[in-house]
């Protein structure tokens, strides 16, 4: 039996399941303080004989194996969680192998093992929600680096008619600042879910998301691009994003995935809302190998 935690800034999803991605039991807890939230998590896993645990976490997190703060959530604006020793807190109660990665890398791994990128050695998983995050598998491996990529904060070219300052506390008008759920709400004065019939909202949203995906395609050449998160529940956005990506690429990348079959190239998660927690299960399976 494997344990999985998808740790989000709003909620924690916990599951027990197996190395084939089957989820046997699942629970959701709101993200409050580490003390309270972790007490729920530990109570959830306690009755099970867990062999390994996978954690896909919001960040920034420390993934450097030789770092004294490996396994920590580091400089998050969520004050209560800054410098929280996540892996350590789990290890104290469950002395088993623990896989730890970003929430979006976990989702990319879940989709590669059991979802839309099955059989591929490369994919991207992008979530557009309260924040924008992107996980990547490149040449068969989850992408890390100096710390870990932060592809939600890339710089984007501003739409000529757009005067919105952006909501990112660090950069103002980076991608997340212009196109996250809170950016939509601040810009238009209503939550995204209440703006479904406003074409101009989603056209502008697609303008920014497609720029970002275009840049990811140019830099990483992913074999599949998977887009999830609350904002993508507006299912009419994805077709707009595809058209804008084709436009931005300008016919330069001459591959049928982009020129003819883009509907199969930029896709929603096959695992739906379970991509993250299934991915955490995959991290547990890898840690247990
Ligand atoms: N149906 C919808 N249409 C448009 N926007 C939506 C919709 N549902 C949620 N959102 C927006 O998405 C954001 C929430 O994102 P999401 O549901 O992906 O949670 P999340 O931010 O990933 O949670 P966590 O931080 O816990 O991971 C909010 O800004 C919300 O307004
Ligand atoms: Zn930013």
TrEMBL record:
GO molecular function: ATP binding; fructokinase activity; metal ion binding
Record carries keyword Kinase: yes
Pfam entry (one): ROK
Cofactor(s) required for function per UniProt: Mg(2+)
Entries under CDD domains matching the protein: ASKHA_NBD_ROK_BsFRK-like (cd24067)
Swiss-Prot/TrEMBL catalytic activity: D-fructose + ATP = D-fructose 6-phosphate + ADP + H(+)
Gene3D superfamilies for the chain: 3.30.420.40
Database matches in PROSITE patterns: ROK
Swiss-Prot/TrEMBL keywords: ATP-binding, Carbohydrate metabolism, Kinase, Magnesium, Metal-binding, Nucleotide-binding, Transferase, Zinc
E.C. designation(s): 2.7.1.4
Record-linked SUPFAM superfamilies: Actin-like ATPase domain
Nucleotide-binding is among the record's keywords: yes
PANTHER family: FRUCTOKINASE (PTHR42742:SF3), TRANSCRIPTIONAL REPRESSOR MPRA (PTHR42742)
Family: Belongs to the ROK (NagC/XylR) family.
Protein name: fructokinase
Biological source species: Geobacillus thermocatenulatus
């Amino acid at each position: 039996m494997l344990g999985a935690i998808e740790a989000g800034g709003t909620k924690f999803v916990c599951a027990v399941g197996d190395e084939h991605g089957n989820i046997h039991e699942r629970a959701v807890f709101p993200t409050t303080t580490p003390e309270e939230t972790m007490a729920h998590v530990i109570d959830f896993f306690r009755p099970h004989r867990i062999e390994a645990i996978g954690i896909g976490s919001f960040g920034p997190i420390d993934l450097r194996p030789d770092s004294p703060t490996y396994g920590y959530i580091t400089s998050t604006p969520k004050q209560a969680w800054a410098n929280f020793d996540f892996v350590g807190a789990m290890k104290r109660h469950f002395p088993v192998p623990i896989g730890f990665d970003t929430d979006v890398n976990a989702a990319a791994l879940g989709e590669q093992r059991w979802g839309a990128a099955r059989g591929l050695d490369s994919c991207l998983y992008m979530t557009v929600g309260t924040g924008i995050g992107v996980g990547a598998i490149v040449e068969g491996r989850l992408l890390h680096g100096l710390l870990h990529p932060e592809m939600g904060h890339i710089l984007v070219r501003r739409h000529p008619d757009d005067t919105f300052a952006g909501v990112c506390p660090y950069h103002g008008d980076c991608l997340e600042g212009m196109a996250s759920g809170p950016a939509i709400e601040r810009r238009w004065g209503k939550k995204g879910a209440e703006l479904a019939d406003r074409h101009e909202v989603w056209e502008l949203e697609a303008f920014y998301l497609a720029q970002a995906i275009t840049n990811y395609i140019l830099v990483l050449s992913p074999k599949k691009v998977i887009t999830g998160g609350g904002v993508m529940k507006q299912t009419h956005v994805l077709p707009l994003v595809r058209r804008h990506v084709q436009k931005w690429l300008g016919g330069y990348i001459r591959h049928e995935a982009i020129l003819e079959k883009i509907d199969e190239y930029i896709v929603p998660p096959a695992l739906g809302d379970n991509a993250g927690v299934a991915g955490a299960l995959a991290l547990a399976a890898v840690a247990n190998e």
